[in-house]
Amino acid sequence: MQRRSGEGLAFAQRAMAINEKNRLPQYLEAAVNAALANAWLDQNDYVRAEKLLIHAGALYDQAQVQPSVRTADYIVALARVHLRTGRAVRPNNCCYRSWLFGRSGQYQWWWHGESLYWLSRAEAKLGETQGAQTHRVDAVRMLQKSTLPALRWLALS
């Protein structure tokens, strides 16, 4: 939420409360779990975030939702958890899957730039410097164009 992690956490918790009362469709429940996971990640609570992401992933699988802009929050949050916990292994790297999806011609979507950013971080951690540099340059180019200050800030980090 634009570098306002406290407000983001409160918003995501309200969405989760609505889901608990009304039982949203699986794909929406997964999105709520992913949003709350991202909020916990912004609070550096990787344990809570990962539990929510495991549940979100299962819901997306049950709803047969493929990587797309609809799953962007989930993809990015899972990548953040994997990087933080040292599991930046390509076959399990969700950002790699979103990068493959984005190659289909959707390069300007904001989430694709953010996914490329996290993919470059994973590649750097794996010692794949050429891929990391290439994807970092592409990510920065996309993120700098974003209307969201938090994504432009990510391009500078």
Counting DSSP H or I runs of 4 or more residues, the number of helices is: 8
Mean pLDDT equals: 77
Count of beta strands: 0
Radius of gyration: 15 Å
Helix and strand pattern: HHHHHHHH
What characteristic shape results from the CA principal axes? globular
* Fraction of residues in H or I helices: over 70%
Report the span from N to C terminus: 17 Å
Q: Strand portion, in percent?
A: under 5%
Runs in which pLDDT lies below 50 for 5 or more consecutive residues are none
Short description:
The protein is mainly α and 157 residues long.
Q: What descriptive keywords fit this protein?
A:
157 residues, mainly alpha, 73% helix, 0% strand
Question: How would you characterize the overall build of this protein?
Answer:
- It is a single chain.
- The chain starts with a helix and ends with a helix.
- It has 157 residues and is an all-alpha fold.
- The chain has helices at residues 5-22, 26-42, 46-62, 72-84, 94-102, 110-125, 129-144, 149-156.
Task: Map the helices and strands.
Blueprint lengths: L4 H18 L3 H17 L3 H17 L9 H13 L9 H9 L7 H16 L3 H16 L4 H8 L1
Helix pairs in contact: 1-2, 2-3, 2-4, 3-4, 4-6, 5-6, 6-7, 7-8
